[in-house]
Fold this protein.
Amino acid sequence: MPHRKASFASLPVRPPFPIATALRRTLSQGYSLARLRKDALAGVVVGIVALPLSMALAIAVGVAPQHGLYTAIVAGVVVALTGGSKHQVSGPTAAFVVILAPIVTRYGMSGLLTAGLMAGMLLFVMGAMRLGRLIEFIPHPVTTGFTAGIATVIATLQIKDVFGLPAGKLPDSYVEKIETLWAARGGASFAELGVAATTMAILLGWPRIYRAIPAPLVAIALVSIGATVLAHAWPGFQVATIGSRFHTVVDGREVAGIPQIPPLPALPWGSEGMTLTKVRDLLSPALAIAMLGAIESLLSAVIADGMTGTKHDPNAELVGLGIGNMVTPFFGGIAATGALARTATNIRAGATSPFAAVIHALAVLAAVLVAAPLVAYVPMAALAALLLLVAWNMSDLHLFAHTVRVAPRSDVAVLLICFFLTVVFDMVVAIGVGVVLAALLFMKRMSELTSTRVLEPQSQQDATHVVPRGVTLYEIAGPLFFGAAQRAMSAIQTVGDSSRVVVLALGTVPTIDATGLVALESAIEQLRLAKKLVVITGPLPEPRRVFEKSNLEVLHDHVFLADTLEQGIQLAQDLIVLTPAGTTRA
């Protein structure tokens, strides 16, 4: 047989961690010119939607609008090419505003970029360790509560620009924000409010007229043109714009609005350097960014799967998201994650592969290079109105109210606590407390699933088992773990004095942990002191190595094991015959 050399194309490439599974699936299926045309059209549409949103979200965080655009450009390309979802579009999202705004206030731009870099590392490790599925275990009340809380904070932050309040920089505390806004109420501008109201009216009304052109583009463009014309025709009409609010120095020249340059590489920590103290201070915010980014991105990918009938790789998506957040800060971009609204728009526009998200990023880049001077004319109130609509959609008030109305009181309590903590404190506290509360409720409910019953000879109404005289059958049903073990084993004290052998039936115990084993051994010791023999019947719960390592029969001379309950009852009957009363071992 002639020897054939294997080509590189034929060799299966298996990276050491899940990465770029969506891209590899796309290329393995064959990528045609027709698919490229569909992806190009979808990418341009999503790019148009992402342009005003990216600027608005960066402004809401407290940084210049170009940093939001740089995030959409760099993360949009990197995450699409390295992630695990075919249709996901990544970039800045409204959910991050609550986390990122305090970081900017406390640590400045360098701290914000460094925290994003650290969050990317955490996301990469989570994906490499294949923890993507664990996000599914975060309960619905937790996600609903902090999502509604985020929407509330975002909406509150827009009050300043919607009314044109001279409030200056808002404080971190939500209560202090409200106090500051209320104190500045006398400076409200009807011109700013009119711009915001007009923008909102177009955003809500345009989709009823013509859906092919995205409403945000139409609203921002028309309102910008109208405000500029009014400012020239009527000197008394003045509204804040991106050009009047933000200035960038380029080659010694001050540029109003955003600079007409692409994202350029630079160290995210700037001249301050990376120190251990900065890493320690930013670790908690970075963890919050990583957790929220993972939750939002994977939820968006799941919804995208439902819309397209595809299936994403959650671990590869986390790896791609981690790589994107590690690369983006080096180009001036803030934290990024999967954006549900942009992903849904991408799917509806006909996207077929990750290349649509790449083209969306290129469309944003082209807008920066070509249309940057025009961005200076966009009113701040118009972007604030756009974010108000985003906050309303994000809050999902109908789902929030439905959960409060029909869910168990414990779940409602978790939801309201997460909402309150997100609004009054921050996301770090809300996620931590919410997950802990949900875990405690889960343990409580699991412990309630574990039940016990005692069958003695005088109560032989049980149709399945006949309990011999001198034997007590103690059945446990449900998991024997740390949340249920103590309560399940405490009833062993109800065993009557007339019994000489106690049969512990564990056949319907699916699992046991170390705490369950300790509780079991404690019960066995109590029965030894009461001079009773013990027969443990199976099939034994998983993990069986817990029993194998415990050596119950060796360490306790009054303990016997049986494979089935029937064998255990027969063994107990034999022990009564063969073992004199008052002894432990025949």
DSSP finds 22 helices and nine strands in the chain. The beta strands are 90-91, 247-250, 253-256, 337-338, 451-455, 471-477, 501-508, 533-537, 559-562. The first strand starts at residue 90 and ends at 91. Confidence is low (pLDDT under 50) at residues 1-12.
